[in-house]
Fold this protein.
Amino acid sequence: MSRPLAPFGRRACRVTANDGVGAYRVLRVDDHDGPRPAPGQFYMLAAVERWGAGEDERPYLPRAFSYLRRVGEELHFMLEDVGPGTARLCELRPGEELWLVGPLGEPFGPPRGRAVLCGGGVGIAPLAALQDELDAEATVLLGFRDAEHAPGAALVRDARVATDDGSAGHHGRVTELLERELGDGVEVFACGPPPMLEAVRALCAERGVDAQLALEAGMACGYGACFGCVVATRDGYARVCVDGPVFDAASLGEVPAH
């Protein structure tokens, strides 16, 4: 399917809000000059100021994030502070600027059956964008580590939640909820950490259910130039940033562990 293409080069966009949602931050950015993205696409983000390891040290590489949703001319991103680069992004405040490149990558294709959205952690972001675009209601299943992270489910409508420690919702893996939903006429859309996606892929393959998986991968460029996000498919190697991040689950022998 045709996809929105990123304008050439990066653009400086102003942060309009930074809201806490449990253990996450939702960063809102004014992107009035950018094209409307499609669910599953991503952006490369970098702070305009203080984007580096310290004075006289090299800057960090941009970070790849699926967009959570677009509201008017605002882009929303779901972030979690897991290291120095994401910590800098999480502390951005309204009025500060963000370098933005995108939208990039292949989006989700249209559903070929009843849509079941299955996500984990920050992987729920492209599923929120997809839910906003669907004509029909979808079943939404989300997995989190614990009750501190579970408030992220509020970013998606009518979600059923599982937590690893049982402190919110179902005690167990989100794939345990997914297993009950699989059947004829279902198509799964999933994004989350690699072990979760591999479990989704294997379960859908066993049940003969179609699935589209948005892979999470560390990306250095976003343009396919560095070959740093290569994954093996049944037809050879593919770059997550340009051939994905969304792949048909049947095209993957397995989801790589990193």
Remarks:
- The first strand starts at residue 11 and ends at 21.
- The first helix runs from residue 84 to 90.
